[in-house]
Amino acid sequence: MSTPSRSTDLFDLTGQRALVTGGSRGLGRAMVLAFAERGADVAIVSRKADACEALAAEVAERHGVRTLAIGCNVSDWGACDRLVDEVVDAWGGLDVLVNNAGMSPVYDRVEDVTEALFDKVLAVNLKGPFRLSAAFGARMIEQGGGSIIGVSSVGAIRPTADVVPYAAAKAGLNNLTEGLAAALGPTVRVNVIMPGRFATDIAAHWDPAETKAAEARTALRRVGQPDEIVGAAVYLASDASRYTTGAILRVDGGMP
What we know:
This protein is α/β, with parallel strands linked by helices. It has one domain (17-250): 3-Layer(aba) Sandwich (Rossmann fold). 43% of the residues lie in helices and 15% in strands. The chain contains seven helices and seven strands; from the N terminus they run βαβαβαβαβαβααβ. α1 (26-37) packs parallel to α2 (49-63). The longest helix has 29 residues, at 115-143. It is globular and about 45 Å long. It starts with 16 loop residues before the first strand and ends in a 5-residue tail after the last strand. Residues 1-6 have low confidence and may be disordered.
């Protein structure tokens, strides 16, 4: 790992090197900004390199940390390996990996789900996180430590009819977290955040009546805002969680 900060703040990330997939928007963007605000260098990864570059420039100007902007399709095994090599070549290693990239294409009925759609959903939400975690995890062991954070979904435990392949992939990610915690321990910690409904850009496609009904069932009676994922992400990335691994952390406003 890079030289730890001398700060007494358990949540300080000064000198840490963090990578967030799906990092140019939504929850990923919120985590990138939070890490940089606390002193971490940040690598922003998504399929759209131009969006990554725009955010990287903003972050570097605002916080003065090192940034990387990398276009990568994490559903591709080879692309994941190239991403690892690029980051290690640039920074010498990585301290925090956030597997945030995800997708859940819309379909009308489960019988309409094609093999191509099913395979793509599992590749982005499960295969990519596995390969990146295994490859970066091995490097983290060599350097003496690191933290890997997955971003799952409450759909993993409360699947609905419109997200069946996605929910299955996220359930797999929860399982993967516990397995990788054992495989990469004691050097590397592996945890997962399980968000509920958050008002990111995908909220524009939500059915208003369904959203209102979901809010009524939630203990806090509302959906989350992107910056409300930050506390969980910083906790799991920092020394504050040094005795936490294999954990599934729900951040869902109290969904039933």
